[in-house]
Write a structure and sequence with these properties.
Blueprint: E1 9-11, E2 16-20, E3 23-26, E4 29-32, E5 34-38, E6 41-45, H1 59-63, E7 71-75, H2 85-93, E8 97-101, H3 103-115, E9 120-124
Parallel strand pairs: 7-8, 7-9
Antiparallel strand pairs: 1-6, 2-3, 3-4, 5-6, 5-9
């Protein structure tokens, strides 16, 4: 991290403090671009559209111990998109349910569930 900027990974669970203009604020810093937010840390991802999300994007989810995440919220951008059946099935096989919604709603829902100590993660596509 340099000058309060996020460099690609921040360990630990963090609330999303703000979103907008293609960026997110969390952990007292900011990041321009999309994120994968999990109990073990916040990661930058390359996807700029929900259609670019694939199994490789979700590899950190699949690498977590079983039971670490029960629900993965998909912030699809400004609007809702269905989670591809193959990804949904692979997540279900790991015991992870998924719920797609707009990025703003996903960030808000993530914060609420994190505050309730739920086992939740979120993939958040940045929006302008």
């Amino acid at each position: 991290m340099q000058g309060g900027k996020y460099d690609g990974f921040l360990p630990g669970a963090h609330r999303i403090e703000a979103i907008g203009q293609g960026a997110f604020a969390f952990g007292g810093m900011s990041h321009v671009g999309s994120l994968l937010v999990l109990p073990d840390g916040v990661r930058a991802i390359k996807a700029t559209r929900f259609s670019e999300v694939d199994e490789a994007t979700l590899a950190p989810v699949f690498a977590l111990p079983p039971g670490e995440v029960d629900l993965l919220l998909f912030g699809c951008g400004p609007s809702l998109h269905p989670v591809p059946a193959v990804l949904r099935q692979k997540l279900l096989e790991r015991g992870v349910r998924c719920d797609p919604m707009s990025t703003g709603n996903a960030a808000q829902t993530y914060n609420i569930l994190l505050g309730e100590k739920r086992r939740v993660g979120a993939l958040l596509i940045a929006v302008a």
